[in-house]
Amino acid sequence: MGYVEDLRKIVGHRPLILTGSVVIVLNKQNNVLLQQRKYPYGVWGLPGGLMELGESTEECARREVWEETGLTIGELELISVSSGKNHYVKAQNGDEFYVVTIVYMTKDIVQGKPQVHDDESLQIKYFPLHQLPDNMVGSHRKAIHNYLELT
């Protein structure tokens, strides 16, 4: 059981501040790797997730990419950090949280081929940066937009 699950046993559904990382993984054609998720069902997003105790945000990013896509990634570039009242989430089970999201970018795929590698994903697929799917996590679309503004 992970940190968030353990914490929820203590605090129930009350609002928490949770920190996580997502990664803009680009291939040689400069397409971005997205994960179609089971929750919320069918929604596309960047690979990523919440930190575990003792993890750095970079370690979280690498672990989540591997868990969700089977890719081992190398060098990470910090793109942005987002937080605040606009990052409030109320899950279907009633859990409430404000998320602090650290966004990284990498073109450094060290090992592996992108594939569904966990039970959280429906599919893993590359998309052109300017042709993202309509059904996408809003904050992840914004993270990609922020990245494009930097380049």
UniProtKB/TrEMBL annotation:
<dbReference type="InterPro" id="IPR020476">
    <property type="entry name" value="Nudix_hydrolase"/>
</dbReference>
<dbReference type="Pfam" id="PF00293">
    <property type="entry name" value="NUDIX"/>
</dbReference>
<dbReference type="InterPro" id="IPR000086">
    <property type="entry name" value="NUDIX_hydrolase_dom"/>
</dbReference>
<dbReference type="InterPro" id="IPR015797">
    <property type="entry name" value="NUDIX_hydrolase-like_dom_sf"/>
</dbReference>
<dbReference type="InterPro" id="IPR020084">
    <property type="entry name" value="NUDIX_hydrolase_CS"/>
</dbReference>
<protein>
    <submittedName>
        <fullName>DNA mismatch repair protein MutT</fullName>
    </submittedName>
</protein>
<keyword id="KW-0378">Hydrolase</keyword>
<comment type="similarity">
    <text>Belongs to the Nudix hydrolase family.</text>
</comment>
<feature type="domain" description="Nudix hydrolase">
    <location>
        <begin position="15"/>
        <end position="150"/>
    </location>
</feature>
